[in-house]
Automatic annotation (TrEMBL):
Pfam families: GatB_N, GatB_Yqey. GO terms for biological process: glutaminyl-tRNAGln biosynthesis via transamidation; mitochondrial translation. GO terms for molecular function: ATP binding; glutaminyl-tRNA synthase (glutamine-hydrolyzing) activity; transferase activity. This is GATB amidotransferase. It comes from Ptilorrhoa leucosticta. Belongs to the GatB/GatE family. GatB subfamily. It comes from the Eukaryota. Residues 397-512 form the Asn/Gln amidotransferase domain.
């Protein structure tokens, strides 16, 4: 039913011309196309002829797992893919009489993230209970920060291409409403063969930062770019590893559409998207689904939906809960969280027993935007190249290491990194850290090329041999395959003469002809 529904929406939308041009036919399965996203800003023209255009509105709620050795309120270890229910304390299992103890590392990570996202840090924040009943939530409630979160009123700047051209980029900003600390739930594992559900509580109680973005985006491309920038910031800070494949960064997308001058439409929430590529597809599909529904006289339900990556569409999950359904109440077992800055820190206070906002701020590393500026300024590379270097984990460090070890100019080095090395990595589905060609070997090869000991064609041959990982150096490969360029004119003349002497008849015929 879901597959037929998805196909029908898109077939009618294409016939009507409601689906705008996207990045290409491969963006969606079975001919689906992405929403036309005007990178310069403005409304999306995606309606029937003569009807006012639709304006899509997209807001995001992002759950980032905090990089910490233990959980938010217990001493249980945090480890991915541990044996089921092997990392569960009495508190995690919600046994009677157990009490929460706040993890200092999680608070520091949230403060660090808030500062990096230009937020105001609340010196006094509160914890609340959010009630809902799932098998993988033993207490029947989640400890979160609904009333007064740890950070508010921030912003995130991100960049995206205009018409998919890397040399034409525009920077946009999305407002950050708040960042709150909260517990993760356990995990339900559904065994369809035996018609049963198993519960793994290893993840129950793991510390999360929920980053709530205002509805300032209008398409999947913008949502994906904002989340990718946030992911890079979290990884740079070390506040979260943000590996989406391991569930360390999960996105809920709130989507609605309306005509210009009208109030926002009814929104739907697409839950637990665990891939940036799927996020873009889910948002764009949901926008087009809502437009199709409204133009055919239907209504949009305030519901929670899931994105089916195989079918390429969203499917209903349940009605959307309201605040009254969660029955929020103050958490009675946790006092207010008090933070200090340099001015408010009492003179006789033990610094190890408090969290100093200014101390954390002074130790913030360079953020991705600053790193890009430094790469462009220091090495003279194009701005779009700096984005590629930072988007691939470890590639910027690899590039800088090669530059330090070679005599070749950085502008030439970047071409070998992006056009040759990166294509090899993508072709073999390898990360930079898994590359069989180290920065030392690539620098050695580029030095041979820069000294004109080999040609560019020969250098590519050597790189292909290095990729085999047989432990040979570039110079050894050059000598084995006799790829050196001859610099001695006398030796070159002797080779030419030997060729002529061995082909006398051909030479005579050529001269006579």
């Amino acid at each position: 039913v879901a597959a037929r529904g998805c196909g029908a929406v898109w077939r009618r939308a294409r016939q009507r011309g409601a689906v705008g041009p996207g990045p290409g036919p491969s963006a969606f399965p079975r001919g689906h196309r992405a929403v036309a996203c005007n990178a310069r800003g403005g409304a999306l023209s995606a309606g029937k002829s003569g009807v006012a255009p639709w304006i899509p509105v997209v807001g995001l709620e992002i759950h980032a797992q905090i990089s910490s050795n233990s959980k938010l309120f217990s001493g249980s270890q945090v480890q991915f893919a541990a044996p089921p229910n092997s990392l569960v304390s009495f508190f995690d299992a919600s046994l009677p009489g157990t009490l929460p103890v706040l993890n200092r590392r999680c608070v520091e990570a949230a403060v660090m993230t808030g500062l990096a996202l230009n937020c105001s840090i609340n010196k006094k924040s509160l914890f609340d209970r959010k009630h809902y009943f799932y098998a993988d939530l033993p207490a029947g409630y989640q400890i979160t920060q609904q009333r007064v979160p740890i950070a508010v009123n921030g912003s995130l700047s991100y960049s995206l291409c205009i018409d998919n051209k890397m040399n034409q980029m525009v920077t946009k900003t999305v407002r950050i409403k708040q960042i709150q600390l909260e517990q993760d739930s356990g995990k339900s594992l559904h065994d369809d063969t035996r018609s049963q559900t198993l519960v793994d509580l290893n993840r129950a109680g793991v510390g999360l930062m929920e980053v709530v973005m205002e509805p300032d985006m209008c398409c999947g491309e913008e949502a994906a770019a904002a989340v990718r920038e946030l992911q890079l910031i979290l990884q740079t800070l070390g506040s979260s590893q943000a590996v989406m494949a391991e569930g360390q960064l999960r996105v809920d997308a709130n989507v609605s559409v309306h005509h210009p001058g009208e109030p926002y439409g009814v929104r739907t929430e697409v839950k637990n998207i665990n891939s940036i590529r799927f996020l873009a597809k889910a948002v764009d599909y949901e926008i087009q689904r809502q437009i199709e529904e409204l133009e055919n006289g239907g209504t949009i339900l305030n519901e929670t939906r899931a994105f089916d990556s195989k079918l390429g569409c969203t499917v209903p999950m349940r009605d959307k809960e309201g605040k009254q359904d969660y029955r929020f109440m103050p958490e009675p077992n946790l006092p207010p969280l008090i933070l200090y800055d340099a001015k408010s820190l009492p003179a006789n206070m033990n610094h190890q027993q408090v969290i100093n906002i200014d101390w954390i701020h002074e130790r913030l590393p360079d953020l991705p935007s600053v790193k890009r500026e430094k790469l462009v300024e220091q090495y003279g590379i194009l701005p779009e190249h700096s984005f590629t270097l930072l988007n691939e984990d470890g590639l910027a460090e690899f590039f800088e290491s090669v530059v330090k070890q070679t005599q070749m100019k950085p502008k030439k080095v970047i071409g070998w990194i992006l056009n040759d090395l990166l294509s090899y990595l993508k072709q073999h589905s390898l990360t930079v850290k898994e590359s069989p060609v180290s920065s030392f070997l690539l620098a050695d090869l580029l030095n041979l090329l820069e000294k004109k000991e080999i040609s560019s064609t020969a250098a590519k041959q050597v790189l292909a041999e290095l990729w085999k990982g047989e432990g040979k150096t570039p110079l050894e490969i050059v000598k084995e395959q006799k790829l050196e360029l001859l610099q001695d004119q006398k030796e070159l003349e002797e080779i030419c003469q030997a060729v002529i002497d061995g082909q006398e008849n051909e030479v005579i015929m050529t001269v006579l002809g």
